[in-house]
Amino acid sequence: MDHSFEIVIKENIHSMFIGISGLIRKEDLHQFESTLLKIEAVKEISTFIFDLTLLEEAPLLVTSVLMLMQMEARKKGRVYCMPPLNHLKMELSKFGVIRDSETMPIEVPIFSPT
Question: What's the pTM value of the predicted model, to 2 decimals?
Answer without folding.
Answer: 0.33
